[in-house]
Structures are given as C-alpha cells and as structure tokens.
Amino acid sequence: NMSNTKITGSVDMTSLRSGGHMLLELVELQNYLHLNNAHLNGGIRIKESSIKGQLVLDGATLGGSFHVVQKTKLFDIQMLGSKISGSLNVLETNVDRTVELQSVTLFGNNFIRDSTFSKRVSIIDSTINGSLVISKSQFSSVDLGGTTIQGELQMGESGRPNVWNEQSILNCRNLKTGGLSDGGPDSWPPRIDLDGFQYSILGQGARGENADHDIADREPAWFSKWLKKQSPYSYQPYFQLSQVFYKMGYNDRANDVLYAANSLERDMAWQNGSFFKWRWLGLSLLDWTIGYGYGTKYFRSLF
Asked: Where are the alpha helices (DSSP H) in 93-211?
C-alpha cells in the first residue's frame, strides 16, 4: 500500500514478487514507476494519483486485475508481453502521451471509459479472452492491429459516444473479434483501416445494453459510408461484411454490400484512366446486364 505518498524521484520494482495486491491511491510520483517482470498474485489499483514519468509493466504477471481509475493522470503506459488474469480497466484517466500494449494477454472483460488520450492508444498483437469496450473517451488514434478478441469489440455505448478529431484513425488491420457492436451510428472515427478485419457476428453490445443501436439493423447506406472510411479501397472489408450478413440470414444486405464494392471499383477504374477504362467498361457491362450477378439484379438481363 503506497497510498497518500509523494515521491520526488522514481520507483523501481523490477522483478517484484508479491502474494497480494498493490494499491496506489492519492500518490504523486514525479518520475517513473517500473514494474518490469513483476509477479503479483493479486492485481494493481491506481486511484486519484499522478505519475509524471513512464508506467512500465513489461513482462509483468498479475493474478488479478489492473485498474487505473478516478481522476488519475499518467504520462505514458507501456506493457510488453504482460499477462493479466483479470481485466484491464482505464476509467476517468488522462494520459499525456501514448498507451503501448503489445503481445499482452488479458482474460477478463476490459473497459476504457471517460478518459482522455492525447496521443496513440495501441493494443497490438495481443490476446483478449473476454470483450473490449471503448466508450466516452477522447482519442487521437487507436491501434488494434493483429489483436484477437474472443468476445466482442464494442465502440461506444448508448449515450456514451467517443470523441474523435478530424485526423483520428482506428487501425483494425488483421484484428479478429467474435462480435462487433457500437453505441450508435456516430461511434466511429473519420478513418478506419479495415483491411484484414474479421468478425463473426454483428452484436447488440457486450452486455446486451445496446438494443436501440443494433448495428445489424442499420440501412445499407450506413454500411456503405462505414466501409468508405477505409482508404485506399480494399475488397476484403466488403467481402467480410457480406459473409457476416449471409451468416445472419440478411441475404439482400449481403448482395447490396458486394454490389457497392463493385460499383466503387468501377468508379476508381474510370478515375485511374487509360488502361483502366477498359476495366471500367467491363465492369459497366456486368452492371448493366446482370448487376454484377448479385441477387435479383440478374433480371436486368431479361430487360
């Protein structure tokens, strides 16, 4: 227990072994806190504290959860190759620089809420055996590339949208998740890298609270706009969404998504000019005659 403590220097607890929990409440630390290769049978709770240097937990193993809560201010968080048997919760926290989690294993349901991150939040090449809920927080960019989420990825909650700036980007490249949901149509940043993003179903929220914002019930125009946040164009995100719609029994929506992909590819072929105009002509003939072969658009050939 390091509560109600002010430290003008740094704290180095590398290779610490503890049979219980660690509590830092109302702590003011002027420099870094290192817990590299620490092993705790319990968890860590940081509450209403300020750490003005790096908080580093590379190679750490926690038998409980890692909580950073209630008006805590951090400079930087780094966790490489760490293992948390509980959950990761970042609530009402300000981080001046980056959050860097790489090759981390998390076993519980994890929440990032009511927090502000001035620079990148990165959870990459990691394994989350529960769900990840990100809501009512302010971001510059979020990187989830290469991570596997066994439960659900939920961007925003009902009445708790995230705040993005005009340059914000969400990297979902090669991200795999069981379910995908959000807190409403405006939950997403201006740009999303969807290439290689795989999800099994469109859900209603990790705890079933988002019935009013069921992403699967939205109009095709919303999905078209969402997919166009991917730049440059890639066919894979369209194919991925169509397969999920087929799986859920929404065949018409699946066909609409694939039709939109081919239409966008045709428009891009015209813009690229010269040789690609032959590609445009070929796609146009397919559109005019059989609607690229999707759904009832085959009946164009009868006309």
From this structure: none
